[in-house]
What we know:
The structure holds two protein chains of two kinds.
Chain A: E1 3-8, H1 15-28, E2 32-37, H2 42-48, E3 57-59, E4 66-71, H3 74-85, H4 89-97, H5 99-107, H6 111-125, E5 131-135, H7 144-156, H8 158-165, H9 174-187, H10 189-202, H11 206-221, E6 225-232, H12 235-250, E7 255-263, H13 280-314, E8 319-324, H14 333-340
Parallel strand pairs in A: 1-5, 1-6, 2-4, 2-5, 6-7, 7-8
Antiparallel strand pairs in A: 3-4
Chain B: E1 9-13, H1 20-33, E2 38-42, H2 49-52, E3 63-66, E4 69-73, H3 76-88, H4 91-98, H5 101-109, H6 113-127, E5 138-142, H7 150-163, H8 166-179, E6 185-192, H9 195-207, E7 215-223, H10 234-240, H11 245-272, E8 276-280, H12 287-298
Parallel strand pairs in B: 1-5, 1-6, 2-4, 2-5, 6-7, 7-8
Antiparallel strand pairs in B: 3-4
Helix pairs in contact in B: 1-12, 3-4, 3-6, 6-7, 6-8, 7-8, 9-11
Amino acid sequence: MSRVIVCCGTGGVGKTTTSAALAVSLAMRGERAVVLTIDPARRLADALGVELSNDPRPVALDGAGTLHALMLDRKATWDGIVRRFAPNEEAAERLLENSYYRAVSTRLGGSHEYMAMEKLYELVESERWDVVVVDTPPTQHALDFFRAPDRVHRVFDRKVLGMLVEPGKGLFNAATRRVVQIIHRLAGERVIGDIAEFFRLISGLSAGFRQRSQAVAELLASEQTQYWLVTQASAPARADAVAFLEEMEARKLVLSGFLVNRVTAAPGDVVARRPMQMSETEWAAWKPALDALVAAKAREAERHQAGLAQLATTAHGAAVHPLPDLGSAIADLEGLQRLASHLPAV
Amino acid sequence: MTRLFDRRLIVVTGKGGVGRTTTACAIAVAAAQAGKRVCIAELAGLARVPEVFGKQGRSYAPREMAPGVDTISLSALDCMDDFGTRRLKVQALVRLVFHNRLTGAFLDAVPGLPDMQQLGKIRHLIEEPAPHDPSYDLIVLDAPATGHGLTLLDAARSLGEMTRVGPFYEETQLIVQLLTDAERTAILLVTLGEELPVNESLDLVEGLGEDRARLTAVIANQVRRRPLPPAPPWSEVRDWLRDQPELSDLADHAHQTWMAQERALSRLATAVDLPVARLPRLERVDLDGLAVLGAEVEGL
């Protein structure tokens, strides 16, 4: 069975790059690794040197193991599920053309996260990998990742939404009937009709779908899955990180640790001395500029250290791993390997 | 063209980590100093704005953050109630319908519906405030980090496409009208003066198609000042500092970062063909700092 490493975190903290670096480090150590990226910047694809698609492509890495990478295509993954679980091709085609299905598969809240989990399961099931590293979609709340399956399941649960569109089938009281009527009036019959058709079409595939999502949930809660939270040392990023940790605890999941990106190291005891080639007048402009750079870096390093200390006190025992600010953005495999060399062994 | 602060709605968009919330707050503070009554709105129950002002907690009722600046944290559920009250009038009916789990499930299940509820609330604050609502000259919307502000426009359009009739449909049409009216609405794209965020912004602008014309301006946030004197040139001074490697590495990094910023920003300005405002990088953003940042945007 392959191990699973989930990299969580809000947007803008370098999550995708860190996931890729983690996969690089595992491949360097001799594992057959695959990294599933979500909405990667073009630069990361360039750095990996592959054209990313919804299927794993090999990355030319000189290591003891191998590395493959892929990029989630939400719609293609949804369509794949439909084709797999539909009773026949005609049913699949009709569902793929249903306008409500099209909206659900491209823009339903939570469906991006849900499809990442689905794709992850597919990778694990293929048994081609020792370890699957998964980046997660950028979310408003880091917690959206865990809420996604519930949100999607509610849509497919005919006990809830099915009541709305097939009121004849349920036995409900006058109040509920009134609610249904009003929702019909507000939303318009067209949407309701599309949703009703959607439910008729998925009835053939919902058993397979339910089983599948049960298996995914078990995988994510099992010991073969590790969670790492990518964050930064700034206050808002830390607040998100702690909220995420609490949500994990509520779900009885264990956080392996925090990966804190772009931590500034304190400058040594640097005192700028005038080079002999420079005149006193020129030095009068250069000295304060150089001093200011050293002082600004020292203050930033101090803020980051305070942030790390703060995070450690709220981390409920999870490890806090600072990663150095490598300066320029990562542009190639070498850059990813450099970042990888600072990652903990997972 | 209408001046920025004379519009009714400013949508501040940009990817996570570019300082979108800070920018929204800066715009609000500067507009308030120019005499406007402003409200900063957040969606999906987020409450990052109070933190910028050194406060905590989230509230659906407007809260004052600074003189003339309120904030409000919207969520689809809160707004759904308001929508119900406007449409159904009878409070008992609103409670029956909108506090029903069926309705909650429906809200979650129809893509675009939560956006419509929240944008509908903003539209009402602007166009037809309820008697108990404060009356604002300007609403600054801190748009979600996923996608971009124009996904909101997209969400309203596709919900309209799905519904075609009924009250939900009517509301989507009014929202699209507001968002596409350049006299009343400005859409600002926030980015950073670094290669990666600039590339992402250009990809995003590229992907807008015809809606590209809806963008009002681009805001480059956290712009660094030139760190080293222009003369003698750094390439020479670096050689002279060879015996002080730590200092020369630090200065080199600062210089290269600044050069990369200037390259990225000039590429951005050429490619988008829109005004690009530069907000300076501040170590601490307090109320005065927000006013300094906001002043850079006022001229747009």
